[in-house]
Automatic annotation (TrEMBL):
Listed SUPFAM superfamilies: P-loop containing nucleoside triphosphate hydrolases
Top-rank taxon: Bacteria
Keyword Transport tagged: yes
Biological source species: Blautia parvula
Residue ranges occupied by any ABC transporter domain in the UniProt entry: 4-230
Name of the protein in its database record: ABC transporter ATP-binding protein
Segments passing through the bilayer: none
Keyword line: ATP-binding, Nucleotide-binding, Transport
Pfam assignment, any one: ABC_tran
The UniProt record lists the keyword Transport: yes
Length: 230
């Protein structure tokens, strides 16, 4: 059974009397442990697809099954709970809370998992050490470089051991060397626990880190390539 099943997903936006077909009946299965890239130029439908996969929006037609749950049937509250339990996010702009330290940011997703404060902080500290920030637990985002902030973002994304991680242009603001470090880190974490990564990007260099590349043009998957693992 695939970790993510995308079945006939169509998304049509209506603006006044105009219709935009952002996704035109997409079908794809993404396996457990797969590092899958959704690749395409601006306007091809990548963000729309990610929004449907993360349950931020409902498709006009079709369904999405993650971990055997049809998420297109979940109402907002259930969807939020599902996200907290099963999904981690890595954002281009890091999305760290500015008034929280690296440790507090990383521990945040663990709030919803029923751990006590001591356990949350111990786990967060271990994760920050794994991303090389063991000396910066009490630093605020504004006191860290972009690459360091994104390493906090990675620690946070993996903290609750989600089955699936959605990464939207995770290194879009970082240089090539930092990008390589960040991506190696994400891949190593994901492979260790057989976690599934959906990586969204317009950058062919970034796409080359994936095991599989789904290319979108005008809301259609026009290519599905698998590579040997790096
Ligand atoms: P990408 O992420 O690949 O740049 P998007 O998914 O953002 O592409 O956009 C795909 C198409 O859907 C574009 O034509 C875009 O203008 C349109 N679109 C995306 N979101 C909306 C929205 N909320 N309302 C109307 N049109 C939208
Ligand atoms: P331990 O086995 O004592 O938990 P580890 O060094 O294996 O120590 O991990 C450190 C912390 O990072 C732990 O809280 C662990 O749960 C977490 N961790 C390790 N690998 C992953 C991963 N791939 N995804 C999520 N969390 C992870």
């Amino acid at each position: 059974e695939a970790m993510i099943k995308i079945c006939g997903v169509r998304k049509v936006y209506r603006i006044g009397t105009e219709k935009v077909i952002a996704l035109d009946r997409i079908d794809a299965d993404i396996q457990k442990g797969e590092i899958c890239c959704i690749f395409g130029t601006s306007g091809s439908g990548k963000s729309t697809l990610l929004n449907q996969l993360a349950g931020m929006e409902k498709p006009t037609e079709g369904k999405i099954v993650i971990d055997s749950v049809d998420i297109t049937k979940l109402r907002e509250e259930k969807m939020a709970a599902f996200r907290q339990k099963h999904i981690g996010f890595i954002f281009q702009s890091y999305n760290l809370l500015p008034y929280m330290t690296a440790l507090e940011n990383t521990a945040l997703p663990l709030m919803f998992q029923g751990y006590g404060k001591k356990e949350r902080e111990a786990r967060a500290a271990r994760l920050l050490k794994m991303v090389g920030l063991g000396e910066r637990l009490s630093h605020y985002p504004s006191q860290m470089s972009g690459g360091q902030q994104q390493r906090v973002g990675i620690a946070r994304a993996f903290a609750a051991k989600p089955d699936v991680i959605f990464a939207d242009e995770p290194t879009g603001n970082l240089d090539t060397k930092t990008t390589a470090q960040i991506m190696e880190m994400v891949l190593a974490f994901a492979r260790e626990n057989q976690q599934t990564i959906v990586l969204v990007t317009h950058d062919p260099e970034m796409a080359s880190y994936a095991d599989r590349i789904l290319t979108l043009i005008d809301g259609n998957i026009v290519k599905d390539e698998r590579k040997d693992k790096k």
